[in-house]
Amino acid sequence: MVGSAKTSLFSDKTNEKPKIDKVVIFVGGGERNGIDKEEATHIWEIYAQHLGNVEIVDGQKNPMFAAKDYAREN
């Protein structure tokens, strides 16, 4: 079944794209390119006002682990 789902999702036979219900942003705890966690969160809040259904999640120290835990729970 996984193969058929992958084929139908990424098939070139249709121009339809899958509907995205929500975008989840995981903000990490570290600083990157001079932007800290508080600034990054504020920037994503501005984007969220214009993008629609965006959820901003505290990614703690490692947003990749937070994303994995979020996916498992949801």
Q: How many helical stretches?
A: 3
User: Strand percentage, roughly?
Assistant: 5-15%
The strands making up the biggest β-sheet line up spatially as 1-2
SSE topology string: HEHEH
Can you tell me the residue ranges where pLDDT is under 50 for at least 5 consecutive residues? Answer: none
Estimated structural class: alpha+beta
How far apart are the first and last residues' alpha carbons, in Å?
21 Å
Mean pLDDT: 84
Task: Write a concise keyword list for the protein shown above.
2 strands; 74 residues; alpha+beta; 3 helices; two-stranded parallel sheet; 47% helix
Structure description:
This protein is of the alpha+beta class and 74 residues long. 47% of the residues lie in helices and 14% in strands. Strand 1, helix 2 and strand 2 form a beta-alpha-beta unit. The longest helix has 15 residues, at 37-51.
